[in-house]
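Severity: low
Component: inverse-folding endpoint
Summary: output formatting inconsistent between runs
Steps to reproduce: submit the following structure tokens with default settings.
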């Protein structure tokens, strides 16, 4: 059985809805456990113990939100050497830009995560089509985690 960690930040609810769609997609793969956490609450142990993770953020000022950055900042040194090639998916909600994706990709490169699938970009709140793309990412991560 694999565990998928979904870490996100959301002030207005759009990215939370996106995170829930990723989590639902992962749960649809039998035997998958999902841990869904805000970036400020997610721990080093969550990162060490998951089989795969998804990281999600709104685009705030063309950068990732502070809540997700806090997760990366706290967990970087304690996990180095332990999580190389851990499968990771990325999702970003935005208001028409989406440049924050680059900041997430850069940090995922520093962690040496193995990126799974294409990053999912969503403008505003996820509609049914976006939720299906997000769920697809969750399913891919669940398969990579098992
Ligand atoms: C402080 C702030 C800064 C933002 N800056 C950008 C931006 O630079 N580019 C963009 O496309 N959207 C920007 N937005 C829009 C948000 O990325 C978008 O509404 C997002 O879906 C919000 O996610 P949330 O509801 O999870 O907080 C900004 C929103 C806020 C509140």
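Observed output (run 2 of 3):
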């Amino acid at each position: 059985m694999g565990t998928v960690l979904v870490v996100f930040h959301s002030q207005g609810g759009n990215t939370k809805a996106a995170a829930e769609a990723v989590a639902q997609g992962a749960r649809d793969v039998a035997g998958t456990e999902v841990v869904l956490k805000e970036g400020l609450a997610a721990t080093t142990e969550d990162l060490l113990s998951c089989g795969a993770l998804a990281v999600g953020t709104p685009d705030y000022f063309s950068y990732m939100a502070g809540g997700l950055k806090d997760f990366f900042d706290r967990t970087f040194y304690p996990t180095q050497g332990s999580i190389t090639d851990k499968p990771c998916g990325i999702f970003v909600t935005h208001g028409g830009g989406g440049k924050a994706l680059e900041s997430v990709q850069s940090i995922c490169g520093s962690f040496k995560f193995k990126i799974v699938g294409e990053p999912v970009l969503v403008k505003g709140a996820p509609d049914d089509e976006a939720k299906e793309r997000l769920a697809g990412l969750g399913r891919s991560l669940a398969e990579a985690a098992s």
